[in-house]
């Protein structure tokens, strides 16, 4: 009859160390490199941050992240609870009954200066969960056409047509209302009317 020898502490530590190194190599190096290679070959624009460049080649933003626009000649994105800081994404966490949320919404409605006949869409006065949503609804973009056209000295019909050209349904029929990427729309507006 053979007796089993108990592994020594040093052999157990060595086995644990080998398992840790193999796991680290697979999960910390191999898997991320595989996903990076797939991303670069299948969707390189998205994998590289959806970066948008001006004619000089300078990065002006990302199509995947909202940027704050406040000048009247630009379309404005949804409000951001984190001041459009991608390092601190998050919502305001204010409840719908919070007076601060109501006050902020009233102040934004006043700044939008829309026609009294057109109700202000909710996405222009409420922040998204991340505070970085790059899209607004078509109705939110249409609500701003009058202000942008007046600030740029353009006919409203010209600006409205530009908004319509940039409206899309990223989820197909699952998207209830067309969306407009604010940065792409503003860049197109600058190209047509610098």
The parts where pLDDT drops under 50 for at least 5 residues are none
Number of helices: 7
**H/E order of the elements?**
HHEEHEHHHEEH
Strand order of the largest sheet: 3-5-4
Total E-strand runs: 5
Q: CA-to-CA gap between the ends?
A: 91 Å
Structural class by SSE content? mainly alpha
The profile of the biggest β sheet is:
3 strands, antiparallel
Overall spatial form: elongated
| β-strand amount | 5-15%
Instruction: Provide the domain count.
Output: 2
Using brief descriptors, characterize the structure shown.
194 residues; mainly alpha; 2 domains; 3-stranded antiparallel β-sheet; two-stranded antiparallel ribbon; 7 helices; 5 strands
Summarize the structure.
With 194 residues, the protein is mainly alpha-helical. The protein is 45% helix and 8% strand.
Explained architecture:
It is built from seven helices and five strands. The chain has two domains: 9-45; 52-192, no CATH class. Helix 6 (156-166) crosses helix 7. The protein is mainly α. The strands form two sheets. A three-stranded antiparallel β-sheet has the order 3-5-4. Helices cover 45% and strands 8% of the residues. It has helices at residues 9-42, 44-47, 99-112, 138-142, 145-152, 156-166, 182-192; strands spanning 51-53, 59-62, 135-137, 167-168, 179-181. The protein is elongated.
Q: Topology, please?
A:
Blueprint: H1 9-42, H2 44-47, E1 51-53, E2 59-62, H3 99-112, E3 135-137, H4 138-142, H5 145-152, H6 156-166, E4 167-168, E5 179-181, H7 182-192
Antiparallel strand pairs: 1-2, 3-5, 4-5
